[in-house]
Amino acid sequence: MVRPLVACRTYALLPSVVVNWRSFRWKDEGRFLGGFEGLVRRFCAQERGSENGRMGREREIMVNMETPANHTMKKALLGLNCIILAIGNCGGPLVMRLYFVRGGKRIWFSGWLETGGWPIIFIPLTIAYLNRLKTGGATTKTQFFSMKPRVFIMSAAIGVLTGLVDYLYAYGVAKLLVSTSAFIVATQLAFTAGSAFLLVKQKFTGYSINAIVLLTVGARILGLHTSSDGPEGESNKEYLLGFFLTLAAAALYGLILPLVELMYLKAKQAITYTLVLEIQMVMCFFATAFCTVGMLINKDFQAISREAKEYELGEGKYYLVVVWSAIVWQCFFLGAIGVIFYSSSLLSAIIITGLIPVTEVLAAIFYHEKFQAEKGVSLFLSLWSFISYFCGEMKHNTNKKNVQNDSRQTELTQSHDKSQWS
């Protein structure tokens, strides 16, 4: 008589039982298990413990069949985050520069605005929470935040570093032209590439190395005449201080991007885009808190109303510039962390650096900064690097897909051969 076997799905066993009926006796660890009971026990052991079991193979095949649709959605979301990053990367420096050229002087306040728009993230988080409530069912416990303490602590630490970057970059924009600060920020790509290699073992292909080299050369070309087009009325000491503080900001942010990717790998919980939004909010909150301390020490809060009244464009437009600065910069950080989630920190850095010539063109249009021939060459090299990188990604994805298809076909063939011998 066959004794009942707990946790063994009998309906899943029937196909295999029929197929293997002729193999009525199996050898298990040197002993023979006879009869139908031995057959059932053997299959249950295979079902629970072996990844090469028939059901395990079928589940893997089903996952692989879902991959193309998921891959298409991933590319669409990656493209959306690239657009958001582009808006913040090009618009952020321009709006910040507008604040300074029209009478704004508070550097800590300007750095505070870079991450001060973090409450905006509550909007997509609320929408995601309501969607989980709708689809989760009455028996499912749904929480607004899914972040665990480990991820919260890492996000807070990275947020403090981001706050320091906010201040260093704001000081550079206050003392340098947009073209000069953009040239210095381009060095961030080299820092990101090195940090990504050390922290997350980033693999480089010939296409990605070519893109890095082209962008670095293009950024260097941008700096050929930066020493002759500094802001009017600025001392050499202020210019050099702004230069080196901006360089420090580029180096530190080049470290932050791989740190975010490393946090994803060490999170010990499922990384969803909702969690990415939570991470972004925590990072921006602590970055804003860091700059708030600087504002309190520098007494910026007391000076805001007075500065607004003396602003060249008027008090109303002053607050409009301030609000839009916070919104546009939030696009930058949200897009950057989204690109890291769907791709890598290296791609995020490549997009940031590659859009520098676009920022140069916009600065020439809106602030009448000189657009020398060097900037045109840099723009061309930037476009070339983008084409090189994405062509390499397409080729890599195609080869990866072919390898997966070959592996799946081999597995199906082996499974068919085993079923015939059974």
TrEMBL record:
Q: Which residues form the signal peptide?
A: none
State the Gene Ontology terms under molecular function.
purine nucleobase transmembrane transporter activity; purine nucleoside transmembrane transporter activity
Polar residues bias located where? 401-413
Q: List residues traversing the bilayer.
A: 78-101, 107-130, 151-170, 176-200, 207-227, 239-260, 272-298, 318-342, 349-367, 373-392
Keyword hit for Transport: yes
Task: Report whether Transmembrane shows up as a keyword of the record.
Answer: yes
Q: Keywords of this protein's UniProt record, alphabetized?
A: Membrane, Transmembrane, Transmembrane helix, Transport
Which topology term describes how it sits in the membrane? Multi-pass membrane protein
Q: Specify where the region named Disordered lies, as residue ranges.
A: 401-422
One Pfam annotation, family name? Answer: PUNUT
Taken from the UniProt entry, a GO cellular component term is:
membrane
Please name the InterPro entries in this protein's record: EmrE-like (IPR037185), PUP_plant (IPR030182)
Its subcellular locations are: Membrane
Q: Which family does it belong to?
A: Belongs to the purine permeases (TC 2.A.7.14) family.
**Name of the protein this chain belongs to:** Probable purine permease
Q: Which organism is it from?
A: Olea europaea subsp. europaea
Organism lineage reads as: Eukaryota, Viridiplantae, Streptophyta, Embryophyta, Tracheophyta
